[in-house]
């Protein structure tokens, strides 16, 4: 298996992966969101990584830019979405993609990463709720709104509401 950046020509494979992985209920909206984010100038800079095996894309992770309202902090990202194809789940691929993404963002000088997801899963990769960044909408499960710093100490100095890419700033995704 190799991990590499996705190509502009691979959008259709990514759409299919998210459609199939997220299933009937969420597949349509997550696959649409993925393509919109890849094409959204306000999501830039972004990091889009895939895991590939036997020339097949088996997993995808996307990190897109965020800023904090009324705050100068740069180098913020949000992780969304992440999908590992059904046949390949529970073999460490998701965890490896998250770690590779975090390592690459850190190398590029990123400061922090946010995620809205299952705390039981994302806490295994270092995400936690001990931060002061507010989501753009009120959430039914606040414990699912997590962050981690890539630069020691940055989260202690950031408070305010996050501003995501336009494509992600829709109520249905929160
Ligand atoms: C959730 C998902 C990304 C996990 O990817 P994965 O490759 O199957 O997970 P991994 O094998 O890397 O698991 C890493 C660890 O998390 C645990 N884990 C896996 N899925 C989990 C889940 N749903 N809840 C809690 N823990 C989970 C594993 O046991 C493993 O623990 P360990 O390191 O102690 O052994 C994948 O199942 C998926 O794509 N699901 C459908 C789409 C989705 O829900 N995406 C996430 C929301 S954006």
Describe this structure in words.
This protein has one domain: Aminopeptidase (3-Layer(aba) Sandwich), CATH 3.40.630.30. Helix content is 28%, strand content 29%. The protein has helices at residues 11-39, 93-107, 119-122; strands at residues 2-5, 47-53, 56-68, 76-84, 112-116, 132-134, 145-149, 159-163. A hairpin with a 2-residue loop joins strand 2 and strand 3 (56-68). The mean pLDDT is 97. Bound molecules: coenzyme A. Coenzyme A (COA) binds next to helix 1, strand 4, helix 2 and helix 3.
Give the tags:
alpha+beta, Aminopeptidase, single chain, 174 residues, 8-stranded mixed β-sheet, binds coenzyme A
CATH homologous superfamily identity: Gcn5-related N-acetyltransferase (GNAT)
**Named CATH topology:** Aminopeptidase
Instruction: Please identify the oligomeric state.
Output: single chain
Tally of DSSP β-strands: 8
Percent helix among the residues? 25-40%
Termini separation: 32 Å
Major pleated sheet: 8 strands, mixed
Which small-molecule ligands are present, each listed once? coenzyme A
- Named at the architecture level, the CATH assignment is 3-Layer(aba) Sandwich
Radius of gyration: 15 Å
How do the helices and strands follow one another from N- to C-terminus? EHEEEHEHEEE
In what range is the share of β-strand residues? 25-35%
């Amino acid at each position: 298996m190799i991990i590499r950046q996705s190509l502009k020509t691979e959008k259709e494979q990514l759409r299919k992966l998210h459609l199939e992985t997220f299933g009937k209920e969420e597949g349509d909206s997550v696959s649409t969101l993925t393509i919109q984010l890849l094409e959204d100038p306000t999501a830039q800079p972004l990091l889009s990584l895939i895991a590939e095996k036997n020339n097949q894309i088996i997993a995808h992770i996307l990190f897109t830019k965020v800023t904090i309202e009324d705050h100068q902090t740069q180098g913020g990202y949000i992780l969304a979405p992440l999908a590992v194809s059904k046949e390949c789940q529970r073999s460490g691929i998701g965890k490896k993609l998250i770690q590779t993404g975090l390592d690459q963002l850190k190398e590029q000088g990123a400061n922090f990463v946010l995620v809205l997801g299952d705390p039981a899963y994302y806490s295994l990769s270092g995400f936690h709720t001990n931060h002061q960044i507010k989501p753009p909408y009120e959430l039914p499960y606040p414990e699912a709104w997590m962050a981690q710093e890539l630069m020691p100490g940055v989260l202690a100095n950031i408070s305010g509401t996050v501003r995501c890419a336009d494509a992600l700033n829709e109520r249905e995704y929160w």
